[in-house]
Amino acid sequence: MNEDFLRAVHCVHRIALGAGAGGSLACILGGVANQPQFYHSWLVAWLFFTGISCGSLVIVMLQALTGGQWGVAVQRFSEAAMLTLPLMTVFFVPVLIGIHDLFPWSRADALVVHPKWEHKMGYLNLPFFALRGFLFFAIVGALAFRIRHWSVLQDKEGGILPGKRIRILSGGGLVVYVLAMNFISTDWVMSLAPDWYSTVFVVIFLAGQFLTALALMTLLLVVSAGRAPFAELIQAKHFHDLGNLLLTFVIFWIYVSFCQFLIIWSGNLPKEISWYLQRSASGWKLVALFLMIFQFLIPLGLLLFRGIKRKPARLALVSVLILCANIVNVYWLVAPAFHPEGVHFHWLDLATLIAIGGFWTIVFLRFLKRQPLLPLHPEEVLRHA
Question: For 234-249, what is the HEC assignment?
């Protein structure tokens, strides 16, 4: 890693440290003043950054299975991002501490207020909830660090064996990941409204995570493209491929989201439509409209142009737009459970994003500095370049 890049990393590290410390202080003060709001804001921020970590793991596994130069270009960024999963495991603890302020099924009077939830309590209880959460992090963390181990080994020794092992693990890992995420999306988001359930929701959740991680990786590549070792190797084709992937998953995200809405709304069953009725109140309609415009229509319109996808600066703007829209998307999935009367923004929403984002960035940079920014044997990483 050249000195210019190291200086940039150190500068970002100092900023991230300040953001993490300042955001943490604000969270402590806010938590003392308004404990429920702190936990509500923490859940949104934690889900957003956990989604980036998990989505980055999917990027690495997907590239291992399909090949492609786009994946090699962002491989080290994606590996560093997926290795932040232990940090997100630690940040899961405040969710457990504030569980009574977050999940209505965990409260002492849950069955008194909602006796129909009795048959769900075998699944929705604090010990089992915590066990599933830590088990999920153990599984995805083990996948991430094992893949990283073989990736490092491939740099050191070369040969096709490490890459072959990564592909084999990625094939089974993606299946396990999707199955595990089916439970986790139910626990962390759907159980905020225990009366509601959707079999499509996990697909929407996964699509959002992957899209967010891919947008961040694309942005990082654009920022790094002018520095060694990227300057001589990264071409317009890499950005074009990443732009096509962004376009694909922007369309896929809106497709599965609309399918869920259409099926539930046409069925018009009270338990199923309750989730959308809650998000149709007052200002929540405007949030849905914002997502339609800024997470779908504008990115779709821009990414259809070849000139946008092949120009790094323009593609970076689209990536930033998708990242910001996905923060709002996570907020829209979670916050109406706490504020059904209408949109409610609080300064802790920003403070928790800054605090978690600062520490996430520190850990990300720590792992990024440990390995060369590009694989040393890219020809052995690629299968179908």
Answer: CCHHHHHHHHHHHHHH
Q: Is 115 contained in some domain?
A: no
In terms of C-beta density within 10 A (0-12 exposed, 13-18 middle, 19 or more buried), how is residue 131 classed? exposed
**Domain that includes residue 168, residue range:** 3-107+120-381
Q: What pLDDT score was predicted for residue 272?
A: 83
Q: In angstroms, what CA-CA distances link 231 with 2, 63, 202, 326?
A: 12, 22, 38, 30
C-beta atoms surrounding 21 within 10 Å: 14
Alpha-carbon distances of 340 from 189, 226, 255, rounded to whole Å: 15, 47, 26
pLDDT in tens, 36-71: 999 999 999 999 999 999 999 999 999 999 887 888
Q: Residue type for 313, please?
A: A
Say if 57 falls within a structural domain.
yes
Q: Residue written as tokens 């940079």?
A: 365
Contact 185, 202 (CB under 8 A): yes
Specify the number of domains making up the chain.
1
DSSP codes joined into one string, 287-335: HHHHHIIIIIIHHHHHHTSHHHHH-HHHHHHHHHHHHHHHHHHHHHHHG
Mean pLDDT, all residues of the chain: 92
- Residue at 112 is within a domain: no
